[in-house]
């Protein structure tokens, strides 16, 4: 179970445990029931030239950092896994490049009615996804890309409902 306190505890622990030279900015720590994902921001690559050269310099910087820190990251992950009872996954941000090196792919059980299954099957038949599982993951990623706008709209709607309820007969 995730309490409001757990993400703060995990973020605080990593802030104190991670070497300062690994952080050009505070680590981006995300916590769910199965996993803690730590994305480290490191200094941008000093590439001059085209966008392609900059992208390759950033990829090289990320790869070098991954190799140079592997042993120490594994040690820190082991400590955190013991402490917080979740797997630890790592990633890096270099300039505009963000990549995850490891992550948990957790199965999620869901029950879908025929109209929802038809949506998934359409995505599979159209070649958007290889399977229903991939199609569902695609849908979740799409919602995730638009979640800020959607959640803001949802919060506004919930506020409007609360206002209407407050004016109702039970008020």
What does this 3D model show about the protein?
Helices cover 55% and strands 16% of the residues. It has 171 residues and is an alpha+beta fold. The protein has 2 domains: 5-100; 114-167. The protein has a 4-stranded mixed beta sheet with strand order 1-2-3-4. Strand 3 (87-94) and strand 4 (97-100) form a beta hairpin. The longest helix has 34 residues, at 51-84. The radius of gyration is 21 Å and the shape is extended.
Short description:
This protein has 171 residues and is α+β, with helices and mostly antiparallel strands.
Structural class: alpha+beta
Spans of at least 5 consecutive residues whose pLDDT stays below 50 are none
Write down how many β-strands occur, each being a DSSP E stretch of 2 or more residues. Answer: 4
Distance between the termini: 35 Å
Average of pLDDT: 89
- Pattern of helices and strands: HEEHEEHHH
Strand content: 15-25%
